[in-house]
Amino acid sequence: MVRPAAHPRLILAALAFCGVLVSISQTIVVPLLPSLPAITHSPVSDVSWLITVTLLTGAVFTPLLGRAGDMYGKRRVLLIALSSMVIGSLLCATSSNLSVLITGRAFQGAAVAVVPLGISILRDELPPARVIPSIAIMSSTLGIGAAFGIPAATLVVEYANWHTMFWINLGLGLLDVVLVLLIVPESAVRTSGRFDVLGALGLSAFLVCLLLAVSKSNAWSAGRLTVLYAVAVLLVPLWGWYELRTKSPLVDLRVSARPAVLFTNLSALLIGFAFYANSLSTAQLVQEPKWTGYGLGESIVVSGLCLLPGGVAMVLLSPVSARISSARGPRFTLMIASVIMAAGYVVRLFTSANVAGIVVGATVVSAGTAVAYSALPALIMHAVPVTETAAANGLNTLMRTIGQAICSTIVATVLANVTISQAGKVAPALSAYLIVFVIAGIAAAVAAGLVLLIPVRRSAPADEVAPVRAART
């Protein structure tokens, strides 16, 4: 008997709403960071954990929950991830204690797995003709949510109690859970075998050591950082050796080593880097004081609103990206996207004198990001078995997260060390921002070069989607 299913557009709308909200939850704390030391009576180095812990838990749980979704049911694990975001929002909404806030942010970070799980559900549930356009929209929610989340959070911080943004996030999260329960079906596609607990522990230990070392490189001693990097380097071959010999690995390294998967994931890391540099630099550049000679001295609200046109561009370009992928293949689409992002940073080198110029440059980069994020999961799905979709997309999302973590550290280091001063006041020099733009532009250009190494495949994954329909009869 064929199970009745919701309309494909309803499924997409529900999952996309989940993706946007989860992405927003990752960024809403950014405008609040300057005020949190006073609010929590804590030093700046401790407050920075509100960003660090989100990156850590997101990186750790994204591949783990992706694999669990392939094995135990994507809808079931999706609900677990959404529940994690709700719990985190509740903790942050009800406390000003830094330890509680960090714990809440950790729960919110784990919810990033919603996006790769949603992509996998769309692949399983939608008609073949709708798969590529739908996953393009779902993948872009990572960027769309970030583009809208920061402006929304700045308005809340400016005009309401800061806890309000977490209460809003909590309410919308509960709505997401209800929508998934009512609309999204459970996939019949499962991976056999046992969950790779040892592999999960090994990958988690590696990611924690690596991302802690990267994100805390400006705050911790050289000795502590050396130990973390050394442990991370030691864990890689041991974990890889184990994964190649276990029957049901957390990450199928043989599949991940295929050029189509390997170079797509490396491109994702660089694109995640280039995307995050745009968000970090724009928000701060607009607020730099006028005494610097280049600063505009705008408010936090204006800095957030500067990202809105980029968010609108991402919404509009996601379906366009899908059409390009359908006509020319996602490899071509990712190439175009990387070039657009690199061109956007060239524009940014010459448009820092006024708000309009900054918005134009930032929007060009966001446009390229939208196209890139839309193409990445299509490339992954062309290259992996249908039973590994959630795990493979989780790994791709993880690579974007690592790129963002590396970017955050590099941007912070450059802006902290390339400075100007006047009457005891210190601020980043204009050249610091230009250095960030050059580095991010090079990252996007290198991503374009890696795309050339991805084998060409023009056919849509319809042949892999069709067996899913049959499995429900």
Could you give the topology of this structure?
Layout: H1 8-27, H2 36-40, H3 44-47, H4 49-72, H5 74-93, H6 98-110, H7 114-125, H8 128-159, H9 163-183, H10 197-215, H11 222-245, H12 253-256, H13 259-285, H14 300-305, H15 308-328, H16 330-348, H17 355-383, H18 389-417, E1 419-422, E2 425-428, H19 430-451, H20 462-471
Antiparallel strand pairs: 1-2
Main β-sheet description: 2 strands, antiparallel
- Widest beta sheet: strand line-up: 1-2
Low-pLDDT runs of 5+ residues are: 458-473
The structure class reads mainly alpha
The fraction of residues in strands falls at under 5%
Give me the number of helical elements: 20
Primary descriptors:
single chain, 473 residues, mainly alpha, two-stranded antiparallel ribbon, 20 helices, 2 strands, 76% helix, 2% strand, globular, disordered C terminus
Commentary on this structure:
- 76% of the residues lie in helices and 2% in strands.
- The protein is an all-alpha fold.
- It has a two-stranded antiparallel ribbon.
- Strand 1 (419-422) and strand 2 form a beta hairpin.
- The radius of gyration is 21 Å and the shape is globular.
Short description:
The protein has helices at residues 8-27, 36-40, 44-47, 49-72, 74-93, 98-110, 114-125, 128-159, 163-183, 197-215, 222-245, 253-256, 259-285, 300-305, 308-328, 330-348, 355-383, 389-417, 430-451, 462-471, and strands at residues 419-422, 425-428.
